[in-house]
Amino acid sequence: MADVESNEYTYLEPLPAALAENPRLAGDEGEPRLIAAATDLRADGSYGHEWLIVTTQRLQIFDQLSQDALPAIEAPLTDLTQVELERLIGTATITASIRGEHRDLVRMTHSSQQLFQRLSQYLGELAKFARKNAGIDPCPEDGPPPATPRMPIDLERRTRCPQCGLMLRSGSEICPACLDKGQALMRILAYMRPYWWQMALVWLLLVVSTLLNLVPPYLTRPLVDRVLVPAMTVTDADDSRAPYTMDGRPPQSTNQRRAVEGGPPSLTPGERLRMLGLLVVGLLLAQLGAMLIGVWRGRKMARIGTQVAHDLRQEVFEHVQRHSLRFFDQHKTGDLMSRIGHDTGSLESVLIDGVQFFVVNVLTLIGIGLVLLFMNWQLTLLVLLPVPIVLIISRLISRTLRRLFHGAWSRRGKLGATLNESLSGMRVVKAFAREGEENTRFEGHSRGLQQAMMRAEQAWSTYFPTLTFLTSSGALIVWYVGGRKIIGGDELTLGTLMAFLAYLAMFFGPLQFLTRVVDWMARSLAAAQRVFELLDTTPDVPEAAEPVAMDHIEGRVTFQNVTFGYDPYKPVLKNLTLDIKPGEMIGLVGRSGAGKSTTINLLCRFYDPNEGALLIDGVDARNIRQHDLRSQLGVVLQDTFLFSGTIAENITYGKRDATPLEIMRAAKAANAHHFIIQKPDGYDTIVGERGYQLSGGERQRIAIARAILHSPRILILDEATASVDTDTEREIQEAIARLTKGRTTIAIAHRLSTLRNADRLVVLKEGEIIEQGSHAELLAQEGEFHRLVNMQQEMAAIVGVHG
Q1: Tens digit of pLDDT for each residue in 113-162?
Q2: Which of 210, 519, 566, 686 has CA 20 to 30 A from 700's CA?
Q3: Sheet with 11-12, edge to edge strand ranges
Q4: 403 pLDDT exceeds 80?
Q5: Helix/strand/coil for 90
Q6: According to the model, what pLDDT value does residue 236 have?
């Protein structure tokens, strides 16, 4: 894909030749083109491209790519108002009012929605700019002339597959439709590089075991021809088919007959018994040796394969943890669990079984092929007749199977996500009596998985028996042609035919396995694609190339003109500027959605600002080593999370080497010690998954104790007292007052009265700071803070009356 031409004023995708040569296309030196972008849907909702063309003066929409195509929509920018993007079910549409008439401009899928949301913003700004320049919309009196609009913040290029043009997942460079099988397989095998010497030994033993497996059929020929076939006695000297001696008479003994035929002389019964014993011992040793080597090789490969799978799982898990919370907002937990657990498990089976069996069967095919050619090259060529047909069918079916299994794997991820949501939210499900709805939702995803797996397995069930029939047809050819040779008195002996058929059975086994490689590759590469898609996703909150080490943070926090939105085109914080001194306690106040928790998320560097900078002790947080930053932050979030261990393990989560005395001091400071010691197991009490065995207030106080023990330089309290009663809240406030001395503290509280001791309150409204000051100062101003306090007091009075 050619790079998008983009700067702060333009976004220009390369135009198709037919459109570029269209004389009606707007844009020249006097009217520069600012936007040229292709949609991925047509106006009727079908897949295809329409082109949005915007110049400094007009808008054009082309739905046909030809040199004489007229624009489907064309209008001066001065005629455009109310440009916005409307989200529909599965799609989105840019709409605008053109001379008072509401029009749909272009349509796109959700994968392109983010780009076109920003382009619609830019188009709206361009239209406003054009109207002001034309004098249609008045400019502010005595104000500056309108500035030339710039692109919206953080405009990302759309990433398409260079081969098929499919839109790729954000941050990913892997196209599921064009995944190269060879490259994916080599990438899987690259994980075995640290164990190369062990693999070299395994492959050496593979060669030895393959050779040993070729021995038994070879010993079958003398076993049949020399030992088991009884001594031949000529009873009919006039048999016209019998060979004759040099004097023209038929041979009178078996040895004479064998001499004429060119074979070895017949053995006596005693010699036959001795040879039978030797051959059976040889067969036993060959099979025993192959079995012992196979057992050792299998155990070794199991060890290597499980270790490699562990390495891969660990790498995927560590890579996922490097992502920001935005990544987890965009990926369902069940889907991630499926990829990290199930899909890496599929690769494990490839490494343990697939690789070694593939090598074994390839070596076996080569060895048997050489032996068969040596024994009878004419029969060997006949056997190989079906092989080209098998290979052609395998080639044709491989892409279909891979697509079917990839779809099944995706369905499995969706089912896992649904199951995780239902089980995690079971309290809510039961509280609202929605078991039936959850059953229906689960049944839908399960049915989707069943249908996808059924299509994949049915395709394979049709394909594999067909290949089995084609490959086994070679044996029928050998029986017929070889039988005719023996009956006709040809040089082919019964022992040779039996050995040939034994090798042939061994030959078709590996050949059928190699035909199943299509299935193996389809399944494993579908799993590999999902795993590698995670590994190839670039974290949007990355570690700096040369991070600044900050072992000790003083605690100065500065927000410099910070703009941020979870969707970058819908900012939650707008040009936020705030300076917090070391040791100062700040209270963030505002209605729900004002941006309080978002401010905390930026400080923890769960996300990075879209614009502006967040400084810690004068250093941009993006340049600070993430471990140094977060290890000196203490966080008590509104949504308290406890791990399914003991109370002591949860308190020491941020400081594993804490002594029992330190644990108890932290618990006392958080007013948790008294309820902990009342439990039968005290600090060794198991809290259960997510701490379900504790009350909400108990969980909150353990989270506070966890932050206290961590002894952070910057303390963050996000509704830290939201789940406690009034008496407990008073005690916690006293503990917090002692804890915050010497530390920078940022607190969010539902009850505004709990922020009386804050050095400064910052009132947020719609992402902007509208008031700052102490509790008393803000009350005296009778502004937004005063209104919020009055509202809480009125609600408290109502609750008291009806209490």
Answers
A1: 778 888 888 898 888 888 888 888 776 554 555 566 766 544 444 455 55
A2: 566
A3: 5-6, 11-12, 33-38, 51-55, 58-62, 73-76
A4: no
A5: coil
A6: 41
Specify the 3-state DSSP secondary structure of 375.
Answer: helix
How far apart CA 761 and CA 775 sit, in angstroms, is 7
Q: CA nearest 617: which of 556, 559, 549, 550?
A: 556
Compute the average pLDDT of residues 392-411: 72
Concatenated DSSP letters of 578-629? EEE-TT-EEEEE-STTSSHHHHHHHHTTSS--SEEEEEETTEEGGGB-HHHH
> What is the rounded CA–CA span in Å between residue 790 and residue 803?
19
Residue 672 contacts residue 650 (beta carbons within 8 Å): no
Q: What is the pLDDT of residues 166-223, one digit of tens each?
A: 555 554 555 555 656 667 667 777 777 888 888 788 778 877 877 787 777 777 777 7
Helix, coil or strand: residue 17: helix
Q: Say whether pTM exceeds 0.85.
A: no
Comparing CA positions, the residue from 131, 134, 150 lying closest to residue 80 is: 131
* Rounded CA separation 761/748 (Å): 10
Burial class (CB within 10 angstroms; exposed 0-12, middle 13-18, buried 19+) of 295: exposed
Instruction: List the alpha helices (DSSP H) in 678-783.
Output: 696-710, 726-739, 775-781
C-alpha gyration radius of the chain: 39
Tell me the longest C-alpha to C-alpha distance in the chain.
Answer: 138
CA separation for the pair 246, 703 (Å, rounded): 106
Residues whose CB is less than 8 angstroms from the CB of residue 344 and which lie 6 or more positions away in sequence, other chains included = 309, 312, 313, 316, 527, 531
